[in-house]
Amino acid sequence: MKPARSKLEELWRLSDAENEIQRQLFNADGQPLPTIDDNVNSSFSNVGSISPLNKSPWSEHESSSAIDEEENRLFASSSSPKTNLVCSLVRKEGHIYSLAASGDLLYTGSDSKNIRVWKNQKEFSGFKSNSGLVKSIILSNDKIFTGHQDGKIRIWKVSEKNQNLFKRIGTLPTLKAYLKSSMNPNNYVEIRRKRSVWIKHLDSISSLALSEDGTLLYSASWDRSFKVWRVGDFKCLESIQAHDDAVNSIVVGFNGLVFSGSADGKVKVWRREKQATKKGFKTKHSLMKTLATKDCAITSLAINVESMQVYSGSSDGLVNFWAGSELQHGEVLRGHKLAVLCLAAAGKLVFSGSADMTICVWRRVVEAGGEHVCLAMLTGHAGPVKCLAVEEEEKEASAGSERRWVLYSGSLDRSVKVWKVPEHAKPNNTQIRNAHNNESV
């Protein structure tokens, strides 16, 4: 009999891998889950493009295209100055798994292996990887790092002669480093009966993060580890066997701290130390403390450096946060009925995207001791919200001195939605109430 954690891990993998949709899924009691009619139409996709999370135990809901389209139309045409849907970006080639934004550029990754580039909400360019769906994207000056299901990190750069052309300049680990490491028997490790050199991930890349100064790249993987790479020469400096189960998210925060969240239900805090060497520097990460020990998977993390807060989303639909240099646990944010799949933090706002197809907008109220209030429940996606990215709106486009944010949400409905969110909007209680009512239908 398999342990419960192995079953949870298996279900998580199935919900996240397009090529395993047809496998039989079972609920916690060992009973088969209801199947979904393959003729069901999505608002954004054709027949046969059923999202993999629609068959997961976290997403036992019925989706109505008419309701979704009506909510989308009403929300987009609303005259409210609060939160507005700007547009939807749709290219029916794959479920959206990753996003990254910088200025007027947006990068989207999908299970079609394509990375699309959008400029001012219009398709601008794109590039394709040979293998592995794109699970994470992160930008570093003139480089783009993409993490893939095949356990590799690919590095891209814009051509100096043609801004529409992106070239792959490397893969991590590099072939030279891999061959050199494989010559020494002491460099081999075994994880889940797989044996390879320690600089190579043995399972999907789930998350990427950059250090505050941009000199280090962190990669988290389902092989239970995270690795540290030097951006300057792409060398793997360190590999940490961090958790007892898949590492789903990694973020780099304040005071040289690194946070990892795992399917083992734990959020761990790691302290980074840099040590100078003749060839540059090396790093050493040591476990500082464990913030959470839950019976359900930690699915996402986000950090707000300004307020020194770290947020975690979990498969039970809750968002927890810890604040201050001592990382004291704060309140629990309850806004979703299904798993929180992604988080993003900016200014005083926190955004949580869920398998229930909604995005909750939270604002930290300093005057109330740092408590959070739900400003809005953003609806309109016809599938689970898998990834979020947020950028501050340009000052001249903002109203007065109020900070406004542009939020991008990627979904397994194959669309990306663009929202404008003012930081000091008043809570839209009607919208929140209607969203919860629709979830319970």
UniProtKB/TrEMBL annotation:
Key words, A-Z: Repeat, WD repeat
WD repeat locations: 127-166, 198-239, 240-270
Xref: Gene3D superfamilies: YVTN repeat-like/Quinoprotein amine dehydrogenase
Cross-referenced PANTHER family: F-BOX AND WD40 DOMAIN PROTEIN, PROTEIN JINGUBANG-LIKE
Descriptive protein name: Uncharacterized protein
Organism: Kalanchoe fedtschenkoi (Lavender scallops)
